[in-house]
Design goal:
Blueprint: E1 7-11, H1 16-27, E2 31-36, H2 39-51, E3 55-60, H3 66-80, E4 85-88, H4 103-129, E5 134-139, H5 152-172, E6 177-182, H6 190-197, H7 202-211, H8 221-232, E7 243-244
Parallel strand pairs: 1-2, 1-4, 2-3, 4-5, 5-6, 6-7
NADP nicotinamide-adenine-dinucleotide phosphate binds near residues 15 and 112.
Length: about 250
């Protein structure tokens, strides 16, 4: 029960890493507000948590819209009386050659993967201040640390998340709000499965990524949830502005 008495907001909670972390937060005693575009998946996460005896509340929202990011934070505070933890897990991925990338691709990927992280955090910080502190965890990617083929727009967003994490950490330290970030390697979720399928040769893409992962396998969402729980809990009380890479050794090799 590492989060007993805490309230958390998880964006991207309908699927993958967001869902696994929302469930782990709830197992550890947090009341969890779940935000996602995907209403069916979000309600399913809500049911999973409730049927395990936890407290969850789903809010359908497009967090790329500033008013929606504000509404999500207000709904979490309204439902559970305050906010201690934010996980920014909503995300989209894009494999595309530079010459085919459009302005729409740029707006969509930067909108979810960077802009939404900024504005959801901005509103969450105001709520956390009222509790005397809090913890924000962002999800960048190995693609924010190393060059990966066909990945320029996603890399721009995820590199931005790393820089923004450090800048938020500095600005929020006096408010006792810690801001940290993880850079996962390839994690087995609907996002990575869809990304490989979008390649002309999916099997070659999977093999190339396994070959550059020293542990020789892709990660599981629950392994990311364990790292995020550490960063969200008081066990990481002296971490802020940290960039951790649970990536099977991908960026070490
Ligand atoms: P996922 O399974 O696709 O989950 C992402 C969730 O975010 C989906 O439910 C998606 O809804 C939702 N979402 C997308 N746009 C949204 C918006 N505008 N407003 C609200 N929700 C929105 O992906 P995941 O693999 O768990 O990824 C979680 C995070 O980890 C992302 O930031 C991703 O970039 C990062 N990451 C993932 C990997 C990996 O290998 N899986 C590696 C490194 C980093 P829809 O399904 O309706 O789009």
């Amino acid at each position: 029960m590492r989060l007993k008495g805490k309230t958390a907001l998880v964006t991207g909670a309908a699927s993958g890493i967001g869902r696994a972390t929302a469930r782990l937060f709830a197992e550890n005693g947090a009341a969890v507000a779940l935000a996602d575009l995907n209403a069916e998946g979000g309600r399913e996460t809500e049911r999973m948590i409730a049927s395990a005896g936890g407290a969850a509340h789903f809010i359908q929202a497009d967090v790329t819209k500033v008013a929606e990011a504000r509404r999500v934070v207000e709904a979490a505070v309204g439902k559970f009386g305050g906010l201690d933890i934010l996980l920014n897990a909503a995300g989209v991925f894009l494999f595309k050659p530079i010459e085919d990338c459009t302005e729409e691709d740029w707006e969509r990927v930067l909108g979810v993967d960077l802009k939404a992280v900024f504005f959801t955090s901005k509103f969450a910080i105001a709520a956390m201040e009222k509790r005397g502190g809090g913890a924000i965890v962002n999800i960048s990617s190995g693609c924010g640390l190393i060059g990966v083929p066909l990945n320029t727009i996603y890399a721009a967003a995820k590199g931005g998340v790393i820089g923004m994490t450090r800048a938020f950490a500095v600005d929020c330290a006096a408010k006792k709000i810690r801001v940290n970030c993880i850079c996962p390697g390839v994690i087995d979720t609907p996002m990575s499965r869809g990304a490989f399928k979008s390649l002309p040769d999916p099997e070659a893409g999977i093999s190339a990524n396994l070959a550059r992962t020293p542990l020789g396998r892709f990660g599981q969402p629950e392994e990311m949830a364990n790292t995020i729980l550490f960063l969200a809990s008081d066990e990481s009380s002296y971490f802020t502005g940290a960039i951790l890479a649970p990536d099977g050794g991908m960026t070490a090799s």
